[in-house]
Prior knowledge:
The protein has strands at 4-9, 13-17, 24-29, 36-39, 45-49, 54-58, 68-70, 77-82, 89-93, 97-101, 110-113, 118-123, 129-134, 139-143, 148-153, 178-183, 190-194, 198-203, 211-217, 225-230, 236-241, 246-250, 266-271, 278-283, 289-294, 298-303, 308-314, 320-326. The protein is mainly β.
Amino acid sequence: MSVVLATAGLDHKIRFWEAPSGINSKTLRAGAPVNCLEITPNKQFIAAGCNPHIRLFEVNDTNTDPVLTLEGHNGNVTSIGFQKDVRYLFSSSEDKTVKIFDLRSQHASCSFDCKAPVNSVVHHPTRPELISGDQNGIVRVWDIGTLKCINELAPDAHSKSNVLPYSTSFYFGQRVSIQSVDISEDGKTCIAANNHAYVFMWDPSDSTKFIPLSKFRSHPTGTYLLKAKISPDSRQLVTCSSDRSARIYDISRQYQSSSSSSSSPKLLQSLNNHQKWVWDCAFSADSSYLVTASSDQTARLFNLRSGEVVRQYTGHQSAVTCVALND
């Protein structure tokens, strides 16, 4: 497949789609509700994070059974990804761990104790580091070589700084669950987005000391943020919410005025076409298209230049909670 587009959700099924036509070309049974999907960079495999297993399938194989089931988590798998050369898979879970699987075995090769259920994990684009966000409101940077945590942050929307030490007593009881973490392909921007729809941005050039860039509310008060992702060109941020929208922000440094180093990113557009919560999204490689997944049992393909829906993908019998795209 030149373009691999897949969705999954609470109906236990992974559906592959012909992106231009909207035809459901293939369906796999995951055996459980699927929380997250990831396609390998070479488009050979797709991984599905369930509870508590991670299942890998061949993308182009007629065999619909998983080729490998990864074991080790004992709770919902909330986030997965592949190292760019597919040397290993990394994952986060509500079992309070981040794990690495080298794919030669079904068991984890190493594990990081996060001390709280973990909602999101991402790999640094050039360094052997993982960045995690957990339900205690902590963002951690893990050195894969030493297996140690080298940075901890507890961003707080109501403080003047988003880098106060997490142990500060003033924070206790005010932490809000981190729903998503991400880092740009150029390695110049790291974001963490919390449950209350606040987004925190840093310059992560020094892994041990993130420099604050901005913090802002991405969706209205009273709504929940469910996912945040940076575009492949490192210029846009999309946030998905319970308010049934996906919002696109300009996070290029051009948005910052010369008079302020902490200006809020500009809202470029709000995609309001879904009827229920928007759980996940995926950019095209050129950052000009976005696929969204929703509780309304559909996924939608948007042209970000026009803001229009290009295609709707219909076939799931329950909420669509995750989407993966490799074009």
